[in-house]
């Protein structure tokens, strides 16, 4: 009976904490996804991706920018990066795009600020450029030429592997913002991009909150202290925590925004500052994505890409920790409990923001699910195109 009661309490606290944090971050998610959708519609991806052919500052900079204004879904980012790579993009801008698309997007920054504070948002951004630089150097020093051709010529069969995880075809995501008829209003296209991203990400976000809530309910604090070597000498702890952060991410199966609740729990449980950053970055080396890389590029190229990404994540976490320590930007003092332990339902500014977000969500839903809205000036063009179509038959 006691065991059953403990199980019930653990399940109840898991779902209760997950529900609380979803409510706490709801407005930030809607804001982030809405702005991201607008940028995806307004920024011409294909015209930028054609400049990814070289590993120079311009190409890497454009890839990073394009990733930052793209979807935060790791699976969609991997599919878009694969398309660019198969069309001739160099590996460095390809990986820079994929990383920026999951770690420099607005929705991630908003939720990270709510859960962990501005220090971590700043570290996320600074560390992203550090990671891209480290990755660039590693690829320049180690990339075998033959491997690139093997990866590009790898068969395209079963490339929908990344889609099965969510039930969506991510290969179509990269062009959904511009494949729509030009007559469709910008608002409707933004709404379509918004619901495309939400449709791909809602499971990741929900699973992330549930995993964090479950670990908070069942894992003793002493266990975390042993795992993170809190009593080890500084350099050893710094390196070990960064490696452990990446390993936990690999095993968690949660990517992008979905891993932030667990990052907050790890920080409250004693992991180092750099370890948290390495964990957040490691959403691109979770096991489902490693299997997708194998399908996209073949075993050897997938192994190379995975090792480069993982090593860059560990090293960037260490560099960020050292850099922020030097400038006094690492939060000091007693670690605050995970926000999932403290948040309660109450009538405050978060509630008002969530209500506004619900209004925005309702408006986007109206635009998305209503009949096609013709943009001003396009009505006669549609009629002419319709007449021409029938005149050919």
Walk me through this protein's architecture.
- The N and C termini lie far apart (75 Å).
- The protein contains 19 helices and no strands.
- It has helices spanning 2-42, 45-49, 57-68, 74-86, 91-103, 106-116, 118-142, 145-153, 176-179, 186-218, 221-227, 234-252, 260-268, 273-281, 287-297, 299-326, 339-342, 349-369, 379-391.
- By secondary structure, it is mainly alpha-helical.
- It has one domain.
- The longest helix is centred in the N-terminal third of the chain and has 41 residues, at 2-42.
- Helix 1 (2-42) runs antiparallel to helix 10.
Tell me how many strands there are.
Answer: 0
Task: Provide mean pLDDT, rounded.
Answer: 79
How many discrete domains?
Answer: 1
SSE series: HHHHHHHHHHHHHHHHHHH
Short account of what is shown:
With 393 residues, the chain is mainly alpha-helical. It has helices spanning 2-42, 45-49, 57-68, 74-86, 91-103, 106-116, 118-142, 145-153, 176-179, 186-218, 221-227, 234-252, 260-268, 273-281, 287-297, 299-326, 339-342, 349-369, 379-391.
Characteristics:
393 residues; mainly alpha; disordered C terminus
What layout of secondary structure does this protein have?
Elements: H1 2-42, H2 45-49, H3 57-68, H4 74-86, H5 91-103, H6 106-116, H7 118-142, H8 145-153, H9 176-179, H10 186-218, H11 221-227, H12 234-252, H13 260-268, H14 273-281, H15 287-297, H16 299-326, H17 339-342, H18 349-369, H19 379-391
Helix pairs in contact: 1-6, 1-10, 1-18, 3-5, 4-5, 4-15, 5-7, 6-7, 7-14, 7-16, 10-13, 10-18, 12-14, 12-16, 13-14, 14-16, 15-16
């Amino acid at each position: 009976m006691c065991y059953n009661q403990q199980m019930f309490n653990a399940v109840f606290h898991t779902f209760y904490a997950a529900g609380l944090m979803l409510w706490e971050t709801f407005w930030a998610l809607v804001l982030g996804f809405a702005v991201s959708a607008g940028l995806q519609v307004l920024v011409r991806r294909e015209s930028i991706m054609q400049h990814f052919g070289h590993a120079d500052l311009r190409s890497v900079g454009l890839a990073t920018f394009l990733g930052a204004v793209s979807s935060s879904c790791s699976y969609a980012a991997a599919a878009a990066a694969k398309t660019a790579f198969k069309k001739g993009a160099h590996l460095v801008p390809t990986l820079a795009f994929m990383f920026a698309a999951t770690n420099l997007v607005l929705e991630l920054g908003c939720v990270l600020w709510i859960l962990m504070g501005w220090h971590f948002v700043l570290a996320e951004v600074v560390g992203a450029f550090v990671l891209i630089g480290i990755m660039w150097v590693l690829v320049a020093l180690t990339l075998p030429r033959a491997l690139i051709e093997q990866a590009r010529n790898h068969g395209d069969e079963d490339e929908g592997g990344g889609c099965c995880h969510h039930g969506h075809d991510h290969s179509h995501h990269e062009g959904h913002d511009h494949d729509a008829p030009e007559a469709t209003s910008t608002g409707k296209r933004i709404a379509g991009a918004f619901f495309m991203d939400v449709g791909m990400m809602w499971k990741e976000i929900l699973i992330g909150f549930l995993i964090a809530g479950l670990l908070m309910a069942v894992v003793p604090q002493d266990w975390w202290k042993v795992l993170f070597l809190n009593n080890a000498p500084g350099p050893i702890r710094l390196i070990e925590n960064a490696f452990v952060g990446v390993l936990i991410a690999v095993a968690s199966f949660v990517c992008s925004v979905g891993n932030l609740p667990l990052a907050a729990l790890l920080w409250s449980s004693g992991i180092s500052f750099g370890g948290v950053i390495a964990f957040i970055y490691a959403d691109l080396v979770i096991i489902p994505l490693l299997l997708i890389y194998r399908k996209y590029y073949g075993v050897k190229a997938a192994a190379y890409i995975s090792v480069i990404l993982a090593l860059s994540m560990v090293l960037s976490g260490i560099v960020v920790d050292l850099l922020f320590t030097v400038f006094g930007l690492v939060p000091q003092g007693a670690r605050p409990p995970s926000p999932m332990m403290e948040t309660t339902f109450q009538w405050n500014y978060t509630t008002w923001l969530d209500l506004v977000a619900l209004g925005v969500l309702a408006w986007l839903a109206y635009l998305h699910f209503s009949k096609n809205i013709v943009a001003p000036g396009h009505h006669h063009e549609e009629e002419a195109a319709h007449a021409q179509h029938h005149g050919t038959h």
